[in-house]
Amino acid sequence: MSVVFTILGIVVVLAIWGVFAYNSLVQQKNWVKEAWAQIDVQLQRRNDLIPNLVETVKGYAKHEQETLSQVIAMRNQIAGMGNDVSPQEKMDASNQLSGALKTVFALAESYPDLKANTNFLNLQEELTNTENKISYSRQLYNSSVAKYNITVESIPTNIVAGFGGFTKEELLETPVEARKVPEVKF
Which residues contact 67 (CB under 8 A, 6 or more apart)? Predict the structure, then answer.
């Protein structure tokens, strides 16, 4: 009789542990989704600011229509991406847009009136702040993914993860262009 209670006790403890492990995986998976949602919010914020920036620059930089058209095309591409693309694909497109925006900001050096325009300066500051928020959100996302992946791969929760259909998530990688050291000439 005591063997039956011992076996029953072990089964109950394993079942309770399984429930806690499963709930932990669900919680961490939702944190990953929340972290991605934060990135998505900042990408949308940047997309909303870009038309105002382009319109402001158009008035001063009439010769730079190709650059401005490229920025709008990239913005529209990102805005049109659905939920069927991976976070990495969306971030790759976003990184290209960030590079194009740097080109627009560099235009201000060629147009002193634009450089002094309050609206342009405010938009530039807003976009810079948004880029910083995107960077922070990427860090939060990668941190959430790393914690989740550790739980999914660690023994014994990997058993519950396998039964529950939990799989690893991919970290967002830094593009090769961003890893290059800028060249400084004097």
Answer: 100, 103, 104, 107
